[in-house]
Write a structure and sequence with these properties.
The structure is a homodimer of 301-residue chains. Chain A is α/β, with parallel strands linked by helices and 301 residues long. Chain A is built from 11 helices and 18 strands. Chain A has a 7-stranded mixed β-sheet with strand order 6-5-4-3-2-1-18. In chain A, helix 10 crosses helix 11. The model of chain A has no long low-confidence stretch (mean pLDDT 96). The interface between A and B is large, with 37 and 36 residues.
């Protein structure tokens, strides 16, 4: 999985810092997650091909997470896009985007599908043979979802020497890869584990922004390969975090620890902090593997 | 008058070129004209104080002229703005902005006034003792207005030596500055012109974007100090200009010449042209005083 941070700063765009947007590239997909103002410029800057984006996931309808969406949708049209585009986001997103396109008499030539969300339970938004994308209900001032992108378990790998030694007919190979025990040419039942190797562990990426401290998400993100968790504030401003339903670095790290994820990526920093390393230091008191998101940074896991 | 170009490129934002927005500073006002995506970042970059902006004029509801408005309105709120804000633009603009604020439950704390336009005739949008702002109906694919900012004629300046020599009572000085002839202490009628000097010629700035070639605007902008006229295309692509209701550099220059303006500023260049100087050269075949807009450029006139 390759995660490109297009923006990771809270609230207002600054000339040197962009609001939230990120690209997750996995199994041939290029998923866009959130779309703050200026996302189309950040996509250009970081050389992400517009035509590869077919699914956009919007966490919530605060401006720093979606004001760039209508511009991107319009630009796709100007570039002559033909491929369908799917947008997943809170109820109301369709009206907000379509109203603006209608006012400009610039309806898209490509097919635009809105998948409006209002459930408070986890739902699967997208699924194919390789991957699934589901919501993670979050706790914020307005209706908000995180998203978890999960690779599916691959087939088992044939241990070709063991298979040949076990005298199994080649016609069974595909059944074996699916994990079945099979009977060999001598009529003996062969234990699948003895003739196959474990496939690579499926990876998963959980995106949780914006949210107050919310232990209810732990079961949804348990053992994720990487967790991006917002940390708008430091513990020093815990009162503000509570008031605005955001999290501190310590709270993000507590979630990461209790969900036993492998990597914690912090982001969505309030503009009040000059030294972002303070977020890392605060989180590292609770959890070891902490990375800081930064505009333009790429994480591979 | 001081004009700062925040963006002057057509259609989609690029990492090195912004869509339309400009700031006109005149007689203590800071007027924002159009507001493409990323305008708030450009305002920061060019150190324009957000709190000074009290009037925003939107020409039309194509994205490259207004997709930055909702973000700016939201940022004003986050910065604790208290002053009123007036937005002038085509009917529909209020619904587009307020719907998005409502979805984010982030209504402004300051008073936001929308002045929705639908007239096909010139109207005065704003007026005080120093300046007036009126619409210039334009010809584009959707309802569009240009704007003309006109300084008012100042009072006449007393020619103090002449006034004293004419033996006029000081109690008449304010009448004299207003241009009246007065009777002096000896009962003689004194011609105003003989005891006053002409005030400086009032300046005016006309903004015309987006528009097809439209001679109907000439009477509205006659003798303007400066005219910003769109030139999306060169004559080479006159067919595209006609099809999309934009202008060529030659057409912009023809308008400038026939309106006898002092300066023509070109902008709203299509992304297809690498060398912007071609616009200047084409316009200079018709009109002498041609300047090219460029992101960040400041014009004083």
């Amino acid at each position: 999985m390759k995660l490109t941070i297009l923006g990771c700063h809270a609230a207002t765009p600054r000339w040197d810092a962009s609001p939230t947007a990120q690209i997750l590239q996995v199994k041939g997909h290029t998923f866009l997650i959130d779309c703050g103002e200026g996302t189309q410029v950040q996509l250009r800057r970081h050389k992400i091909k517009f035509s590869r984006i077919k699914h956009i996931f919007i966490s919530h309808l605060h401006g720093d997470h979606f004001f760039g969406l209508v511009g991107l949708v319009s630009t796709f049209r100007l570039l002559g896009r033909e491929a369908d585009l799917h947008i997943y986001g809170p109820k109301g997103i369709k009206e907000a985007i379509t109203l603006q396109l209608k006012l400009g008499k610039s309806w898209t030539d490509y097919d635009l599908y809105f998948h409006e969300l209002e459930s408070l339970e986890t739902e699967i938004l997208f699924e194919d043979e390789n991957i699934s994308v589901s919501t993670i209900p979050l706790k914020h001032r307005i209706y908000t979802n995180g998203f978890i992108f999960k690779e599916k378990e691959s087939e088992r790998t044939l241990d070709i020497n063991a298979v040949e030694a076990a005298n199994v007919s080649m016609s069974y190979y595909s059944k074996i890869k699916q994990g079945h025990d099979v009977v060999n040419e001598d009529g003996v039942l062969i234990d699948n584990k003895k003739i196959t190797l474990d496939p690579p562990k499926p990876k998963s990426y959980a995106y949780c922004s914006d949210t107050a401290y919310n232990p209810a998400m732990i079961s949804k993100i348990a053992s994720a390969t990487a967790l991006y968790h917002e940390t708008t504030f430091l513990e020093l401003h815990k009162d503000l975090a509570e008031k605005t339903k955001h999290s501190t670095a310590k709270e993000a790290a507590t979630i990461a620890k209790n969900a036993a994820v492998e990597i914690l990526i912090l982001g969505h920093y309030s503009g009040r902090y000059q030294d972002l390393n303070a977020f890392k230091l605060e989180a590292e008191e609770i959890f070891t593997n902490v990375l800081l998101a930064k505009d333009g940074k790429v994480f591979e896991f």
